[in-house]
């Protein structure tokens, strides 16, 4: 068995100087940055090395980038890889994920032909995503270009009876997946400690020749690479601070603060404070929209239930379809799932496209991609939205690539705009806004050179419509052409767990940050604050944490809020000892009401808050708990 490990040199997002931004092009000047090996790619190297211990063979490490990206290849050689290949060419610059996946796939084809002598028994291993793009789109799109199966979110592996068995995490637990043929592609989450190099191996690595290939060397079609081949373009990049329209009211009297909270909560509950979405889009007179067709969502279902994140997509699709004067469609795929179509209609779907087949009983990316691509090709929607769940991040990239469409990942904002750059004019197109570079910036993206505008949207950001049995809709059955050979893999076993109620479901959250100082303080102050907040509001209240608090061991990672944690949108969010780094704000700034407690009046968290308390947690929180416990619920008679 042979191995190809995809690695990437990425900017150190902890230290990005202002002059490194090209604000006009929406790109980074990478030569001005400190560069490191992507952490998840180190995990991929560790997994591949473990595989090679069980099944020996050649290990080639491959990257695409400027000439100095060979440093990441030398690191890979120093920990055990046999050969390094650098794909470098100015023509490859400025590529989006589709225009990145294609040349990498072409390079893999050349490795197979020339280095593996045509042997197709090999495994491509890579990190789940990189910290700079943070899309998780390139690996599944490489697999789609190569026509091979991919297994995402791998945590471990074993070989049994000559078969590779990959353990992977899912939203509902874990699975063991077995590819039925090679090559295959595996993406890795955190698996083990990253590999370390010995001094002698490092000296050996720096003496090796790195193979450098150009676009011509891999027979790349120049219409599919670089800026020319990209299916998305940057509309603008901006600071996350621009998104906040709140003006913080400071109050250190906890009784008064609770009274203000009660009033604000009551106004929200009565709908007297509508969210300011700006003026509704109107098609310019005499202009035709760039795209036509319905607005679709993919309705993710598992275990006979619709994922709540898909219902959020339906709510957003309804808003997007109104100014376009188009219908809302929902694609529902699986086995014996027709009854779920009524749920989707009650939540806003005008049409439900039903793709039922016995081979779709369990989710596997290859057959599901084929099924949905068939529907897209037949009915031609102008927009298709996926949830940025583990399943959506596997499926969306392959569907987009097969449909020759651009895909923007992890969106937190979607709206319809007109866009002009140079002589190009885009009328009534989807503006897709997402955090990037670990939440350090926000980027608005426009789809180009595509059949359909596609996005994945963060769960917890959008609002679902309330169900109404008075809504009517059409169910359109689609006969699928799928055979067992389309599966590409089998699920050998699955460990299904009852999903714990996550913080994304909470109506109120008390979040502790590094300012809590110790785990004992976190439990002493944040936990009872959440309990009191829940009783006061009559809401389900839960405890959240910043990334710093989690890394300091104050609580579990399942409670982390932010760019690398969960996105939440509770009715009330109380942040205690949270500085307000952009990575954290990205995950909670859409909360209805935000209260911040911090000893530093200049802390960034106050710029995102409605109410602020400046003071020490040890003094403020007990007084706040006391005030909440002695006050009546919002709308009640208590004070």
Structure report:
The chain is α/β, with parallel strands linked by helices and 639 residues long. The protein is built from 15 helices and 33 strands. It has a 10-stranded mixed sheet, with helices on both faces. Strands 22-26-21-16-19-20-27 form a 7-stranded parallel sheet, sandwiched between helices. Helix 4 (138-146) packs across helix 11 (390-402). The termini are far apart. Mean pLDDT is 90; it is low at 635-639.
Helix share, percent: 25-40%
Strand content: 25-35%
Please, how many helices? 15
Low-confidence spans: 635-639
Largest sheet properties: 10 strands, mixed
User: Helix/strand-derived class?
Assistant: alpha/beta
Radius of gyration: 25 Å
Shape: globular
Mean pLDDT: 90
What's the short version?
The protein is of the alpha/beta class and 639 residues long. Helix content is 28%, strand content 28%. A 10-stranded mixed beta sheet has the order 13-7-6-1-8-12-9-10-11-28, sandwiched between helices. The chain has a 7-stranded parallel beta sheet with strand order 22-26-21-16-19-20-27, sandwiched between helices. It has a 6-stranded parallel beta sheet with strand order 15-33-32-31-29-30.
């Amino acid at each position: 068995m042979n191995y190809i490990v995809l690695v990437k040199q990425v900017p150190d997002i902890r230290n990005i100087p202002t002059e490194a931004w090209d604000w006009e092009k929406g790109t980074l000047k990478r030569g001005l940055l400190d560069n490191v090996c992507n952490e998840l790619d180190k995990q991929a190297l560790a997994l591949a090395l473990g595989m090679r211990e069980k099944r020996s063979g050649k290990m080639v490490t491959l990257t695409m980038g400027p000439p100095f990206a060979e440093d990441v290849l030398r690191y890979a050689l120093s920990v055990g890889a046999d050969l390094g290949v650098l794909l470098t060419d100015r023509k490859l610059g400025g590529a989006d994920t589709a225009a990145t996946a294609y040349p990498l796939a072409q390079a893999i084809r050349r490795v197979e032909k020339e280095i593996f002598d045509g042997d197709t028994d090999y495994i491509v291993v890579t990190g789940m995503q990189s910290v700079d793009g943070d899309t998780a789109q390139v690996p599944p799109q490489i697999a789609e270009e190569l026509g091979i199966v991919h297994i995402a979110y791998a945590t471990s592996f074993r070989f049994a009876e000559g078969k590779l068995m990959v353990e992977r995490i899912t939203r509902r637990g874990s699975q063991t997946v077995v590819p039925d043929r090679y090559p295959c592609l595996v993406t890795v989450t955190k698996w083990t400690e990253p590999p370390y190099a010995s001094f002698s191996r490092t000296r050996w690595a720096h003496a090796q020749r790195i193979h450098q290939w150009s676009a011509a060397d891999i027979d790349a079609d120049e219409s599919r690479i670089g800026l020319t081949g990209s299916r998305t373009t940057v509309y603008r990049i901006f600071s996350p601070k621009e998104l906040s329209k709140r003006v913080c009211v400071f109050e250190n009297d906890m009784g008064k603060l609770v009274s203000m909270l009660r009033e604000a909560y009551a106004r929200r509950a009565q709908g007297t404070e509508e969210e300011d979405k700006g003026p509704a889009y109107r098609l310019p007179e005499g202009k035709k929209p760039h795209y036509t067709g319905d607005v679709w969502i993919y309705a993710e279902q598992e275990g006979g239930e619709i994922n709540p994140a898909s219902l959020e997509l339906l709510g957003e699709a309804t808003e997007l379809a109104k100014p376009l004067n188009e219908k809302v469609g929902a694609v529902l795929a699986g086995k014996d799932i027709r009854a779920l179509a009524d749920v989707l209609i009650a939540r806003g779907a005008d049409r439900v496209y039903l793709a039922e087949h016995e081979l779709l009983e369990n989710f596997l990316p290859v057959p599901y991609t084929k099924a949905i691509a068939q529907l897209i090709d037949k009915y031609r929607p102008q927009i298709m939205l996926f949830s940025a769940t583990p399943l959506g991040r596997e499926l969306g990239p392959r569907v987009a690539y097969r449909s020759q469409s651009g895909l923007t990942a992890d969106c937190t904002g979607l709206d319809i705009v007109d866009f002009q750059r140079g002589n190009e004019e885009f009328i009534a197109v989807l503006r897709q806004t997402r955090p990037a570079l670990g939440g350090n910036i926000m980027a608005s993206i426009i789809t180009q050179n595509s059949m359909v505008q596609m996005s994945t949207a963060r769960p917890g950001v959008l609002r679902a419509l309330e169900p109404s049995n008075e809504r009517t809709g059409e169910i359109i059955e689609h006969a699928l052409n799928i055979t067992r050979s389309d599966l590409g893999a089998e699920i050998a076993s699955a460990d299904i767990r009852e999903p714990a109620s996550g913080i994304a479901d909470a109506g109120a959250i008390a979040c502790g940050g590094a300012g809590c100082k110790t785990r004992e303080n976190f439990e002493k102050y944040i936990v009872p604050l959440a309990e009191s907040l829940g009783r006061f509001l009559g809401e389900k209240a839960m405890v959240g944490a910043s990334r710093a608090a989690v890394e300091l061991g104050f609580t579990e990672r399942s409670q982390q809020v932010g760019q690398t944690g969960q996105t939440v949108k509770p009715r009330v969010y109380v942040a205690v000892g949270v500085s307000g780094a952009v990575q954290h704000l990205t995950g909670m700034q859409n909360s209805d009401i935000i209260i911040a407690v911090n000893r530093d009046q200049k802390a960034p968290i106050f710029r995102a808050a409605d109410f602020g308390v400046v003071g020490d947690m040890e003094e403020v929180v007990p007084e706040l708990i006391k005030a909440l416990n002695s006050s009546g619920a919002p709308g009640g008679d208590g004070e």
